Amino acid sequence: MKALGPLVALSIGALVSPAGAVALGGATPSPVVHEDYLIVSHDEASGRQHVLFAARLAPAAPRVLMGLPTPSTPTIEPLPKLDLAALVHTLVEPYERRTRGRAPAPPAAWVLDRSTLSGFVVAPSAGEQPFDASWTKGYVDRNFSFAVLDVVTPPGGPLEIMTPAAHISFDAPRVIVARREPPRAEPPVDEAQEGAAIPLVVESVRAEPKAIAPSSEAIARVLRARSGPLLDCYETFLERRPGEATKVTIEASIRPKGDTASLRSPSEKGEEATRAFATCVVKILRARQFPRTDEGWKFSADLAFKPPRTPARRTHLVLVGSSRYVWKDPPASARLLHDFEAKPEDVARAMAPELRRGMGLPEGKRLWISHWLDRDVRRALAEDALFDREDLPADGAPGTLSAPSGKPEVRPAAESPREKPRARSRSKRTENAIAAAAALVFTVALALWLARDERPSA
């Protein structure tokens, strides 16, 4: 095989046996996986495993090769019109409505007309492999093949690549997710410093009265401190608005001791994704301690967020089938978002009949869906995920269609700083009224008792 130039390998979890990963190559600068989807089914009757795969990469490159090691010779079928993010949303939306009383926010639309995808198979006996030799050696030694996805993006200045989906099928007796990746090359010093910059900038700090309020820099330091929770809010926002920079304006009143009397954001009245993001930021900043002053003061500021140079990794791993596959020892970076029995009509709405047949999903049987989100970005030493097959839970068990559906939890609204003194005042007035009534009863009773003793005897 002809050499394809500088190649860098990055692995993405895939369900193969005994291990598997996706490698990237053929792009300079090498792209980084931002988000990837793996929808997996295992045909237990034939031992055939099916994987639907698509990924978002940044920065964009004219050509990227993505290789999936498979323990047997695979077949590859491009599915250029299939939006895997929308497919997952369609699968979980009915469950969210049924159990939580609300629909989840839809994901950003997958751009399907920007890149093209073709596939080919590389045998382990090939003289040259299209990926980094140190990464492929372990698979070649075990006689693995490589399903290679060739993604071509025309010029036009896109910031990222959204690959078309592919259906990869191969023989595999059990389900294992390989999360281990080859170590990435260290970026140049200047790039590493820029990439490490926190994607949060505090802008336009305005405080009053000027004679009382701290300096703008002192306020900004408090807003920037312990930025981790704020960046978690932003990561959640990026799941709905991938690659989008945004800004949150906050308005606050601070008491002399430095605690917040009130803190709000006009963005809390915006559309759903912006509102949820602003509410998350406000909740965190409301608990901050600001500098002490002789009197109360106010300030406003803009918090600007931009996507980090190296995007955070989000792997959506969705298992669908007539059995339930359980991740026995998940890492802290992985979270089980959904684990439930799906209605046949919901699966049919998400997946066309030919796709269900291609994935080996049985007709007329119960189907179970497990949706994991893995955020680990350091996978060079990651342990493979081992899934145990279990029979579906009995009817009525948690997650089943016949499970009791509890009403969505409604938490009482927290008291605002202004409401708390009013509540204490009402409580004090009630206590005083009870004490006065008790004193009146005692006085009347005492007067009646004295009057009885003063009456003349018969």
Automatic annotation (TrEMBL):
Keywords: Membrane, Signal, Transmembrane, Transmembrane helix. Residues 1-21 form the signal peptide. The chain crosses the membrane at residues 433-451. Residues 408-422 have a biased composition (Basic and acidic residues). Residues 391-430 are annotated as: Disordered. This is DUF2330 domain-containing protein. It comes from Polyangium fumosum.
